[in-house]
Every structure is written in C-alpha cells, then in structure tokens.
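Notebook, bench 3.
Goal today: get a predicted structure for GTPase Der from Rhodoferax lithotrophicus so we can plan the truncation constructs. The sequence was checked against the plasmid map this morning, with no discrepancies at the termini. Length recorded as 445 residues. Pasting the sequence as submitted so the record is complete.
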Amino acid sequence: MKPVLALVGRPNVGKSTLFNRLTKSRDAIVADFAGLTRDRHYGNGKQGKHEYIVIDTGGFEPDASSGIYMEMAKQTRQAVAESDVVIFVVDARAGVSAQDHDIANYLRRLGKPCVLVANKAEGMLEGVQLVEFYELGLGDVYPISAAHGQGIRSLIDLALAPLQLLDEEKDEAEQAGVIKLAVAGRPNVGKSTLINVWLGEERLVAFDLPGTTRDAISVPFERNGQKFELIDTAGLRRRGKVFEAIEKFSVVKTLQAIESAHVVLLLIDATQGVTDQDAHIAGYILENGRAVVLAVNKWDAVDEYQRELVKRSIETRLPFLKFANMHLISAQKRQGLGPLWSSIAQASKAANCKMSTPVLTRLLLEAVQFQSPKRAGMFRPKLRYAHQGGMNPPVIVIHGNSLEHVTEAYRRFLEGRFRKEFDLVGTPLRIEFKTSANPFVEKSQ
C-alpha cells in the first residue's frame, strides 16, 4: 500500500511548488501570493521503486474559528489524519513566524512522524540562517529549494525512511498464495451485502443508506482450498458530493485498497445503470493494472427494458473493460454468485500468466505476416521479436525499428492476438515498444 505524505505549512511557503516537484507534474496551481490553495489536492509520486501519494494543503491556521480559514484548517487536519508522514514546510528566507509555532505545537501534540523542511534555501548558508527553526522543537531542519529541485531526493528518502521496513518486508499474503479481492463501486451498490452473503454472517454493516462503510475493511475467506482476503471498500462518490471529512478519508483508503488488490470486483447498480462515477472507478482500476471482474447487482429489481438499457450503457461507457467477464447478480437474493468465483480465479491466473519468448515472437511474426503495420512516410515499423516484461498486469515488450510509428489501432490488433493465444481474460495487457538505436547515426555525421 502506498505511503501518504501530507504537505503542511502557513500560506505562501511553497507547498504547491513542492507538490508539483514531488509528483513531477503541474497539477497544483502556483503563484506568488498567499492563499491560492484551499482544498486538499492528491497526487502520485515515485522515486526509484518506491511509490507514494502526496497531499497538498492550503495555508494552515490551527486556531482559525470562522470563515474560509476555518474550512482550510479543517481540510489540513484531515490531510494530516490520513497521512503516514507529515512534511512541515517553512520559509527559509522569511524565518520563523508565530504561525509556524502554532503549527509546530499542533504537530507535536499529534506525535505523528514529521519532517521539518526549510524551502527557498537556495544559495543560503545552512548553519547560520536555519538555526532559528530548531526552536520549533521538531528536530533537524532540512534545507530544500522546491523551485530549483535542490534536496528533493534526500527529502523523499528521509520522509519514507520510517516506512522502509514495511516496504521491504515480503507480503505474507502473497507468500501464502492468498488472492486479495477488493469489492469496489459507488455507495449503496451492495458491496457489504455481497461480502456478508459470501461469509454467511452479518460481518459488515449493510444498510440502505449511501456511505455506511467508511473504511476499507479486510476479511479472510477460504473457498475450495483457495484463500482470499476480501476487502470491502467505501463507495467512491463524485468529488462534488464528498462533504464530510471522514468520507474524504475513505476515498484515500479505497484507492489504496484497489492498488494493493490482486483482483477487483467492480459492482454496478442495475437500478441506476453506468454512471460517471462507475466509469471513473473503472478507469482507476485500469490505470493501476488490476485484474477486474464486472458484476451488475440488483438485477432482480429491474424490468426487461431497464436490463437492456444497462447492457447498452456498459457497452458504450465501459468499452475499455471488454476483456473482463460480466455477471448479472442479486447479492440480496443470492442469485448468480457461483460463477463469480470462476471468473475471479480466471482473472487472477491471467494476471500472473507466464509467456515464453519463442511463443511471443512466433505470434508477433505471424501477426505481421497476416497484417503489416501502416507505413508512416518513408518508414514502415519493423517488429522483430517480443518477450515478457512483467506480470500483474502482463507486460509484453516488442523490439524492432521505427516502432514509434506503430498506430494505436495496430497495438489493439496485436493485443487481440496475444489475448486469444494466452486466454488473458479479466486482466489488462500492456504492450511496450522499444526501438533499436541506429548504429550509423554517428558515422553519418
């Protein structure tokens, strides 16, 4: 599960600039005046093999009691609550302020791991200018420059250091052959009801009210000798519909649960059809390369006309999940649940499929012989050989010349050939092209 880093500090100390630097993006708006960021902003970052989630927050005034500053403080407190490590950002050039002391007092009371960084420290002598920040009582001060990228790698290593032991430990569940199955979907779609039916007991609170489940709850389960870890996630609402702070906390837990799962069962409500939220969740599952099984719940509660509308909406709004098996079920009446397990096992097996290089290369050459890639100007892509580059999801690496000209349509054509041969049902398949370097480039210059 990805660790969460929260950026906290008073206004205009460079939190959003640091956020963009940590996520290698420009997602956070940056300008040279205070109070630009007001809500929490999430982003993904990676350094080496370590991935993490970063939360950007607005200027923090812990004692604010009214107006927009009170709302911003509430957002920051929630970001701190859901984080694993807090990065407290101060302004190296402006020095310590009373507001810095208030924030430091708040963070000390929480006792959460905290890294104190002095931003805008480019060209400054560390020992002289930064000594005053030790009076905040948060330990050593680490100088950085978010705008210039100085000290960022060391900061990430430092922030993730308390979590390294957890990251380096092998997953016990994987060692034991346990399949992590996350049940995801919008609020009130029947996730907890389905898991209760599987377990044969009222293990999870199921109630006809959206948002009953607040956290990602894990339950061990065994079926026909295969061990599972069932993860009931909180429903993902549309961003504009997420009001309560505790629900925003649930969103992070849900996203982390999807990332850590081996297979995701995506539930859709037949009475409401495929909505924007369903497409958003499906896109997130696909983006993370998780194996997926699609289930339409409450199928008994709709008539024939509505059933046809649901099927059409799945075809038009979720075309990128054509590789996944779809099941029509009723968790409450226990209808259609048996075949779900075979699809879950099939998706898990496909995600960890091993593909030999000779077979992949043969399939590639047969595909090229059947249909050559489209010529791009003077060049026609030449595909030479293929090998497997990873599992869960399966990755196929294709080598050749001028492969940057391979069209998306031809990529899909190749994907279909590989899927059919290896029976890759229920898992995304990623194809990477690697063009060989031209040995004559330097000689011709």
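Confidence is low (pLDDT under 50) at residues 28-38, 165-175, 202-215, 235-249. The chain has three domains: 4-167, 172-351, 357-444.
Flagging this for group meeting.
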